[in-house]
Amino acid sequence: MAVQSRPRQALAIAGVLALALGATACSGDSESGLDPDSAECAPYSAFQGHDGESVSIYASIRDAEADLLRQSWKQFEDCTGIEIDYDGSGEFEAQLQVQVDGGNPPDLAFIPQPGLLARFAQANKLKPMTAEQKTLADTNYPADWLKYATVGGQLYGTPLGANVKSFVWYSPKAFAEKGYQVPTTWQQMIEISDKIVAENKKPWCVGLESGEATGWPATDWIEDLMLRTQPAEVYDQWTTHGIPFNDPRVSEAVDRVGSIIKNPKYVNGGYGDVKSLTTTPFQEGGLPILQGQCAMHRQANFYANYLPEGTKIGPDGDIYAFYFPAIDPAKGKPVLGGGEFTVAFTDGPAVQAVRQYLMTGEYANSRAKLGNWITPNNKLDVSNVTQAVDKLSMEVLLDKSAVFRFDGSDLMPAAVGSGTLWKGMVDWVNGKDTKSTLDFVEGSWPK
């Protein structure tokens, strides 16, 4: 992956965008104090001409992460005069459908589920990329990522942020005090867990609550175990219903997950018993590590956004992360990841300007400099990625030996991936058996 942003490339891209938008110089935001003709505003010249217009964006990104988003495009707003009205919601998936069905969609949305993106595209609710936009997308993103936003041969979206989910957060200090080595195999990780249990402590802390999306972190566990118990080809068959959801191979992965997150000896450090998993907000799931109340928390690199301000992340810090180990490292390095895709429900000139700006290297580097974020945009200068776990994530994304797969529930039809599977995971954690749970999800797959 190329990761260097070059001024000549930026100017070429700006020229393409200027032609696409029919851009002309105009005044910027009068309140910003920025001169639209200044050097500071030069990267945004192709997007000017829409002073005073507003563009709405809807997504699931909230709290501190949402604040960083707003910061990342503030200079764009100041230099173009376009106001970006961002709204992040824990009920995003359900409410986006309500808004679209009600004829009041946002201008843009960041959709993390290719399956949901496909449903809107098939219903002719999304605006496909223009030829000029597709050219820019092909220049700035790997083809493997763009295929997730391609429906019926049309490109409908481009990646915004990316994440690597195959991480376990832990306390380096606590591990050092106990003499624990960072595990490189599943068995080593279980042995550490059992040593902690022997001290009458809970080794794992987990949070599954996420509003109407409650249950999604459990699906990440299952996807990671599907990649660790089966070949990647079987994972692909599972996400596309090439094998039934209640296939024995899926049951094996689910039960392996259950050996940790449904094990009353292992969870839920700092919060309570197994049933506390579904009432513990995912944003708070790993915080007991900082208080010494649990040792490990499996969550993506983006979990850094939910740590208290001032938390030091790194191998000598308050908290760090290690790669969620393979069961048999000799069979490869499976990696689970995901990301959001910027899609458009309307196509006015100001909307097109914002949409295209979010595709550029200028935006990718602006957001990366704020921390706690990575992207598959190949114009990213990796020197702008400074947070320790994000650096690990970029190493994983660039590792040609890694077997990368996109989040399985996000690839599935929305009725399953962000519907019955989430509900099924909640019921399963709260006591429902594996067979009944998988039979329920299998029965919900669209015919």
Automatic annotation (TrEMBL):
Signal peptide boundaries: 1-25
Transport as UniProt keyword: yes
Pfam families named among the record's database cross-references: SBP_bac_1
Keywords, sorted A to Z: Signal, Transport
PANTHER family: ARABINOSE-BINDING PROTEIN-RELATED, OSMOPROTECTIVE COMPOUNDS-BINDING PROTEIN GGTB
Family classification: Belongs to the bacterial solute-binding protein 1 family.
Name of this protein: Alpha-glucoside ABC transporter substrate-binding protein
Organism expressing this protein natively: Plantactinospora endophytica
Lineage of source species: Bacteria, Bacillati, Actinomycetota, Actinomycetes, Micromonosporales
